[in-house]
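>> received
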Amino acid sequence: MPVLRPFVLSGGGARGYAHLGVLKAFAERGIFPEVIAATSAGSIAAAFICDGYDTDEVREIFQQQKLGLSMQWKNWRAGFLSLKKVEEALTKHLRHTTFETLPLPLYVAATNFVNGDQTIFNNGPLIPAILAASTIPMLFQPVEIDGVPYVDGGLSGNLPIAPLLEKYRNVIGVHVNPLLPYNAAGGFLANMERTLHMAIREPVLKSKQQCSLFIEPEGLGQYGMFDFSKFDAIYTTGLDYTRKLLEEEEGRSTYAPA
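>> returned
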């Protein structure tokens, strides 16, 4: 009999590919999501899983669509990157277009760009919420929903566990942004990423304490948030780490089949 568990998936740009590897490792042991709360890159993977796809099918979609970023220099005043490829993949492959019709419940966290509050979307159109949750300020133009501009949910909580706590137990948290030891020789992008991760780290640590099992593959630290060409390596890092972790943790009631 399959075992169902609530999952919360973090953002992380290209490192979000690792979520598929993590979920694949759980599936191999007969453990599947019953609900997912997610933001940014995690919400993209979660949308397909909650739509009824398995991890292998989602992985194939990501590879075929070559998900990543596209440049739109005309929008440089508000953001010079776009999520056009992501939007095209969601539009083409999602079989359900609203939260209410998804086979599995999904909560998507985005940040209100007016007041900085976190907003949880769990009803209405699906794709705008996912795009909003994935929109990094300065790099992307904010996404407006009902007249309100939204940006990346990671800014207000990169491991959005709160929507799950009232209804679900034994939440499994997956965070794909390990903080590596400081490297003084790191370049501009590495330092920018480190600054961002440190700025949003405290809420993640609080959410971690509320997870029954917390997964943060250390090997992901070698990949940047824009390393979309390294899909296979990122996926495998998540898969191998979680397989090993589950072997070591086998028998613990927090995740193991009863």
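>> The beta strands are 3-9, 31-39, 70-71, 81-82, 106-112, 118-121, 143-145, 148-152, 172-174, 213-215.
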